């Protein structure tokens, strides 16, 4: 096992300002102060990218340490690799702590553009390209390893539109790797998988992509493979309620969040048979710029009451945006999805396409479930999309230098 | 089927200068003049990228039309998708011509950042990101459809180190799609696959990656997933013998080339057990900067005669560079390979990694086969690499606006 390089935890967040709570918020001796650091609303660290003037985009470092894990509020780079792992039989709290110490150390180094300890291909580490590594704990960790001490990740209820495939099932752990360079992602993934292998077994790997760095104007919302602007109505990190929507305040998870993963297959073959007007009506937005059918620009607020000359609603009440939008502002969450497109010889054009839908919410039951229930009940898009994988993970708060992700949490077990 | 938009072929190469040969080189009426245009050595069009000042890198256009197909001498962008297709039963010369007219038209539009005809997701076409589409014809096209009229693609001889898997077998056609944006690649691939589907069936899709655009200093040689600098000894487009090494002068294929595809699996698990010195000895190059073990910089010429204090050769005669290098300068070719790394639950770390080795040569038998034969006989790297897929395609010369790739060739059939 890799030894911990810093025996005394360093008490600084590199490059970032942090508001510290009073000592009374400390949850226990020896747990460091990450829980304390997030006990008060913390200045959001959305853009934690190091921008040395003149440096190449490949040199961008997103700091791993902090009150929140990186890879949530940080801007999504081009490539995603999401790993689902199960702890090996007999691995308990001590083993999980060893694993998380090891993987956190790997992540801290790799995200800075430094080789992991005993990195077998150190030169592949030198281009961090905004690499982030984000860890999530599945329901079994809370039920069996923490003995119910922490109110953590819970399975989603079933939805009528799900057609879940066992290959994409819930796992004990999720590791979300994101960066703007595919070789960087491949190397980080391999180092993490290798270091995990003694204690955990990979069940699936879900790779995805968005726009490559610098290819489109800054601030362009990504498009999915259906051609739609996807992610317009997403809380911005600058929104006053961003912290409330995203960061948990539950004991043990304060400063953490929850990751909802849905693998959504898109039936592009039948979607492509629909004409442009039919597609726009199904979504409720224009295809060219993503504006709601009642508006002109992408970020115009949809007017669900607007009617046309015949008195019919301009935005179909069964359209995706009408069904997804709630009158209750608490029913929002942060989406950070990626397109997927993988070879599949069994399908007409030889590939399976869709979305690795990743959402973050402080409270899945309160924010995500009602929306998904409404969509499962009625959404014109359901004709072309099917959820084939589903999982939920609690994303523990971030850790300080010398600590590991989940350290405080594991100290709370019964 | 999509009608041809230009009934009279336009006789200009957009944005590029072309040396025209005399009319005597024309191969036949109605075949346009692409064959003529390449009957003389043509100024190499390696960098055919449109660089409008201030434009985003996503706006870069690599011109599709020209005496050579794009995607050979043009600099390799970040992403590769190589499609292997077989013509459907009963599709002959007329069907192949229809298919190539359709796909050439798609490619000409998409590479300019314009939607394909009847593009179902036109907005996904607006960021060409240096997109190239390159077409290759497999041996069966020459034997059965052209009736042996043209000396075209021939299968490679078997090599002792091959462990070919049927899933990666030779196909009738190859379509190489490259661009710096993964969404651009996905959209182009889907349009081409959809338009091909009536006449051809996809057998495999091989995706790969190199460094993302702008992440590393210009001129950095890519690294493969073994951590090696890969592609140092590659003829540069500015080399005086580049045209001779790459562009065919065979009747019907003048200005074309041959594509050798080898899917090379790397056994990273055992490679990672080898220490740094052992790895450098196996390759003959330093891992840190790719310099030969007798040199200091990546591009230093290896000194195979140099010996150490004990009188032993500094570069092992069984090392990869010693075995790959030939005293015969004609035994060189252009490599344009991409890393691959795909989920594979049957493998220890859950993924299968390697190289989609793509090479271009004017004469495969003369340039590639002797080198590969030597490597199959002895190469210390063979311990960790296995060729699991192999195919050869003739890449017809480029076409002019209003023509299609393979047009002159199909006019030559017996």
Short description:
Chains A, B: Belongs to the DyP-type peroxidase family. Two copies of one chain form a homodimer. With 414 residues, chain A is α+β, with helices and mostly antiparallel strands.
Total strands of chain A: the figure is 11
How many individual helices of chain A? 10
Shape field of chain A: globular
Contiguous low-pLDDT stretches of chain A (5 residues minimum) are 1-45
Q: Report the portion of residues of chain A in β strands.
A: 15-25%
Summarize the amount of helix of chain A as a percent range.
Answer: 10-25%
The assembly state of the depicted protein chains is homodimer
First-residue to last-residue Cα separation of chain A: 26 Å
Radius of gyration of chain A: 21 Å
What pair of chains forms the biggest interface?
Answer: A-B, 58 and 58 residues
Biggest β-sheet of chain A: count, sense, barrel?
Answer: 5 strands, antiparallel
Order of helices and strands of chain A: HEEEHEHEHEHEHHHEEEHEH
**Mean model confidence by pLDDT of chain A:** 88
Coarse structural class of chain A: alpha+beta
């Amino acid at each position: 096992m890799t030894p911990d390089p810093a025996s005394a935890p360093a008490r600084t967040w590199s490059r970032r300002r942090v508001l510290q709570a009073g000592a009374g918020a400390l949850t226990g001796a020896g747990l460091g102060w990450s829980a304390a650091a997030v006990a008060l609303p913390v200045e959001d660290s959305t853009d934690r990218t190091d921008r040395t003037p003149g440096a190449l985009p490949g040199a961008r470092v997103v700091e791993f340490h902090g009150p929140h894990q990186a890879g949530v509020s940080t801007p999504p780079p081009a490539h995603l690799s999401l790993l689902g792992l199960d702890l090996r039989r007999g691995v308990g709290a001590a083993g999980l702590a060893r694993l998380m110490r090891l993987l956190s150390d790997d992540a801290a180094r790799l995200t800075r553009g430094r080789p992991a300890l005993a990195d077998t291909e150190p030169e592949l580490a030198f281009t961090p390209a905004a690499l982030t590594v984000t860890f999530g704990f599945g329901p079994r960790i809370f039920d069996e390893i923490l003995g119910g001490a922490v109110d953590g990740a819970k399975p989603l209820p079933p939805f009528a539109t799900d057609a879940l495939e066992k290959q994409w099932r819930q796992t004990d752990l999720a590791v979300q790797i994101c960066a703007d360079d595919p070789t960087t992602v491949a190397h980080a993934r391999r180092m993490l998988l290798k270091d995990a292998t003694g204690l955990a077994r990979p069940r699936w790997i879900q790779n995805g992509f968005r726009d490559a760095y610098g290819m489109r104007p800054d601030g362009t919302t990504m498009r999915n493979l259906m051609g739609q602007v996807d992610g317009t109505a997403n809380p911005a990190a600058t929104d006053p309620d961003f912290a409330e929507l995203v960061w948990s305040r539950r004991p043990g998870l304060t400063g953490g969040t929850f990751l909802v993963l849905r693998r959504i297959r898109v039936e592009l073959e039948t979607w492509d048979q629909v004409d442009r007007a039919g597609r726009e009506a199904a979504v409720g937005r224009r295809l060219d710029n993503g504006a709601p059918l009642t508006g002109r620009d992408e970020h115009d607020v949809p007017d669900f009451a607007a009617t046309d000359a015949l008195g019919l609603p301009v935005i179909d009440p069964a359209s995706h945006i009408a069904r997804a939008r709630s009158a209750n502002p608490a029913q929002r969450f942060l989406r950070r999805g990626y397109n997927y497109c993988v070879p599949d010889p069994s399908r007409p054009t030889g590939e399976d396409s869709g979305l690795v839908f990743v959402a973050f919410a402080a409270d899945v039951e309160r924010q995500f479930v009602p929306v998904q229930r409404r969509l499962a009940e009625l959404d014109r898009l359901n004709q072309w999309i099917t959820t084939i994988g589903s999982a939920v993970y609690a994303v523990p708060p971030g850790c300080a230098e010398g600590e590991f992700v989940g350290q405080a949490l594991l100290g709370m077990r019964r």
